[in-house]
């Protein structure tokens, strides 16, 4: 009996490692190739990439794209949080019958191809350009729509994990107004969900190309694409760096999620954590 | 510590969810400092009544008066009521102490040093101040919730089945503790439960609800011994429905004349509700009835006897079970305590 389970465990472990290996080769091989390609010149490309003044002098379009992307990522994360967090909480607390509808609206961008989105956005952006100018930062509006499905999922999952209604009612009966309920009761308890939403947003925005390119705005991906025609080495190096940044963000994200779980596991009594 | 409580009055409350009338003209008056238990079957509107009183739900019609002041249109956060919920409701990101302090800080009272710690001490959890909710057992969490509700010195304390998620032993222990603390603090309290034993044990007065209305509001003894309606008699405690015949101001059941709690409305053939503890079962070789089943319940036990074509439940001291095995021929006598007639 014990031998049987041991053998099965061993077989499962072997299977797991095989899968991991195949996937690892599949994903890592291109990255290794990229790294190899960008280091053929003895590291000159990477030295240039980390030397900001020299980089912006050599490739002004690229540095502009990087700045634009960072700005877009920060603004999109901010706008997404400002719009989505209060809405999601409010819908849970006061307008539960609207939940289906809000969920539908938030998931809609997932079903619309970027190219179709652009066709619809083009006339809107004519107005945006008219009022706010042609800055690449205006892409924030389009990106906020684009990240809605992912961010909404993350925040909604966070809200599902706590008994928002009861917590809010307890706080209200203790004298808290709605603002206090949101800031001091609900938000601290969905902090990791909010961080997830923000990280996902940043990762998505850093990788966006289609909309920026078709709306004639710039960001890091557009710049990479443009650069690919003149300096292949540098464009590949920047891609790799962007990928690495996104990877680090996602790793941080999983650490935050895992850290919380680890914390409650370490507790001596973890019974009755969930409400009935 | 002892603060004089305030009177609470619910006046003609109506609340409908769609076509369902959760509250249907509920009237309830609670004396200052009193602990009233609302008792009733599931879905009769107990929680709704409590939530309307707390301001968490708006009534369609009617008034809520606290200390003579009309608070009907006041939002929950300005009603000054402490509430303990059935679901665990501690803020997960705060320690026990911070949970208790939450309401104090909000009130802007210059952080009364020691008040929160003192409240934790009162519920016997002084040593657990730094624990987070997930590090506390269910019973401990509900105690912290009680301390949190009491810390703000509320005018009214509201408890919605705070013990129902706990196991039997902790439940009884915590129930006695809540009663002790409530007596000590003197806050007017409304306690919702569907456990009649809990209601009878804790309350100064018990309100029995049915379909959004109050059927009776009286002391535990009166609710039990002099139920106002057949519903109350049936819901509070176990009752035998036995055929009887009205005879003046009494009723004759199984050959015994019993007094009535309230005069008979109609007659002469009626159904009387007789408590199991009013039924005496005596072994009798020539007895007309037989013991059907026996269930051991601890100090007392329950014996079912078949009488004609119906079952009569009797409560007997467990010491007598030896002489009342199933199949024993017996005769039945009724103690002459007042009974209620079932008019439904
Ligand atoms: N938010 C709501 N929406 C619709 N119906 C509701 C709502 N809240 C309560 N009800 C209905 O109102 C009636 C009374 O509910 P309430 O929660 O007051 O019952 P209760 O006496 O507390 O029952 P229990 O002992 O099961 O807790 C029930 O039939 C319930 O289904
Ligand atoms: Mg209820």
TrEMBL record, chain A:
Entry-linked SUPFAM superfamilies: MetI-like
Domain ABC transmembrane type-1, chain residue ranges per copy: 66-257
Pfam families membership: BPD_transp_1 (PF00528)
Name the UniProt record assigns to this protein: ABC transporter permease
Lineage of origin: Bacteria, Bacillati, Actinomycetota, Actinomycetes, Micromonosporales
Family (UniProt): Belongs to the binding-protein-dependent transport system permease family.
Subcellular location: Cell inner membrane; Cell membrane
InterPro entries: MetI-like (IPR000515), MetI-like_sf (IPR035906)
Domain of life (superkingdom): Bacteria
Topological relation to the membrane, as annotated: Multi-pass membrane protein
Keywords annotated in UniProt: Cell inner membrane, Cell membrane, Membrane, Transmembrane, Transmembrane helix, Transport
Organism: Paractinoplanes globisporus
Transmembrane spans: 62-89, 101-122, 128-152, 192-215, 235-256
Automatic annotation (TrEMBL), chain B:
Keywords, in A-Z order: ATP-binding, Nucleotide-binding, Transport
GO molecular-function terms, A-Z: ATP binding
A Pfam cross-reference name: ABC_tran
Residue ranges occupied by any ABC transporter domain in the UniProt entry: 8-236
PANTHER family, sorted: SPERMIDINE/PUTRESCINE IMPORT ATP-BINDING PROTEIN POTA, SPERMIDINE_PUTRESCINE IMPORT ATP-BINDING PROTEIN POTA
Full protein name: ABC transporter ATP-binding protein
